[in-house]
Amino acid sequence: MALIREKRLTQVNLSLHVPSRAPFQLEAAAAPRRCQPPPLTSSTTTPASRSSQFRLADFERVAVLGRGNSGTVYKVRHRETCALYALKLQHAGDAAAAEADLLGRVASPYVVRCHAVLALESASGDAALLLELADGGSLDGVMRRHGGAFPEEAVAEVAAQALSALAHLHARRVAHLDVKPANLLATTDGDVKVADLGIARVVAAPFAAAGAGTAAYMSPERFDPEAHGGGCGDPFAADVWGLGVTVLELAVGRYPLLLAGQRPSWAALMCAICFGEQPAALVADGEASLELRGFVAACLRKDYRKRASVAELLAHPFVAGRDVAASRRALRRLVAEASSPPSS
Ligand SMILES: Nc1ncnc2c1ncn2[C@@H]1O[C@H](COP(=O)(O)OP(=O)(O)OP(=O)(O)O)[C@@H](O)[C@H]1O
Predict the structure, then answer these.
(1) 236 and 325 share a domain?
(2) Are the beta carbons of 220 and 270 closer than 8 angstroms?
(3) Helix (H, G, I), strand (E, B) or coil at 16
(4) Spatial distance between the Cα atoms of 8 and 325, rounded to a whole number of angstroms
(5) Are 139 and 161 in contact (CB under 8 A)?
């Protein structure tokens, strides 16, 4: 896999060089200019067919949105229209193509949309995904900036929208396999969108339970299928586990399966996930509603065969019984506050 070395972000031009190959450039934003209205394409068009409409040179860099294992994500502006997007530069072109292919199979307001795959001017096959921008960023960032736990109403809204995304993906046999706060994006309108289908896959039986993922959010059967339901596990149930950990984390304001300050080594995580006490019990009586505790308990059954399905969770009182308008308002307020610059 070709490695891209990132140059300092403070440079006027952000040049990404692949040794002995032609560099490609993503220029920093210049002075404001007049923009045409965005020519956004219809939601039925696939990313591949849209790719030809855009070139990397059509965009200028505004900011870094985040960094992950597979690359760096930038906020970019389309020079002509001034429309804002997220651009995910991928070290491995194959991975970008695979992720774009999966995103092309789905069309849901709850899954981040891929507008195009941009080929980069290097011989390595490196590529960039041009994505819909979620202006509130990821929920782990929102939680950090907010300074702790979300109010329960906002957590219920996150759960409801993330479940809608999973229902859409699972109906197309796509398992995400990396559900966590960093992969749930928010907008200041109060929308939640599942992102990063980097390790997602279309499931064809039999499913190999082991494999990549973020250890802290992996279900017990992905560590040890024999001890937690047998067989090869169920990738859709693995997504439900990731959602349960995510909901609990947002509700308590920190990663919930380890003690505060405990080092998240692989061994510590494996012990906590496979042998730790029922995670819902980690929320003390009175700290969370019965509905939230019940929801988390249904997501985090260690035997994947006993875990609730996405359809059952959509009907759970924590989600189905929420005050939709109040929940959305609570999330919108939280994201907007966490996104606005601190007043001096
Ligand atoms: N469409 C987007 N809008 C706003 N921010 C985004 C968007 N896509 C990604 N980000 C930000 O960039 C971060 C990394 O993105 P992403 O998870 O897709 O990268 P990755 O390399 O696949 O990460 P991982 O290491 O989890 O596999 C996210 O956590 C989020 O903060």
Answers:
(1) yes
(2) no
(3) strand
(4) 44
(5) no
Nearest atom, ligand 1, residue 112 CA: 1
Residues 180 and 33 in one domain: no
Convert the pLDDT of each residue in 125-161 to its tens digit: 678 899 999 999 999 999 999 999 999 999 999 999 9
CA-CA distance, 160 to 326, in Å (whole number)? 13
Residues in the annotated binding site for ATP:
88
Residue 41 within any structural domain of the chain: yes
Reading the block at residue 257, the tokens are 């399966």
Task: Pick from 6, 84, 88, 99 the residue to mutate for probing ligand 1's pocket: most ligand atoms within 8 Å of its CB.
Answer: 88
What is the token pair recorded at 189? 């309108």
> Which helix (H) or strand (E) segment is 90 a member of?
strand 84-90
Flag whether 42 is in a domain: yes
Distance, in Å, from the CA atom of 307 to the CA atom of 315, rounded to the nearest integer, reads 14
Structural domain range at position 57:
8-133
Which residue type, as a one-letter code, is found at position 189? D
Q: For residue 28, report the phi and psi dihedrals to the nearest 5 degrees.
A: -70, 155
Query: CA quadruple 280, 291, 179, 182: dihedral positive or negative?
Result: negative
Work out the pLDDT band at 344, boundaries 50, 70, 90: low
Query: Residues near 343 by Cβ (< 8 Å), separated by ≥ 6?
Result: none
Q: Which residues are catalytic?
A: 178
For the stretch 40-80, pLDDT in tens is 443 333 344 444 578 888 899 999 999 877 788 999 999 99
Structure tokens at 246: 């995510």
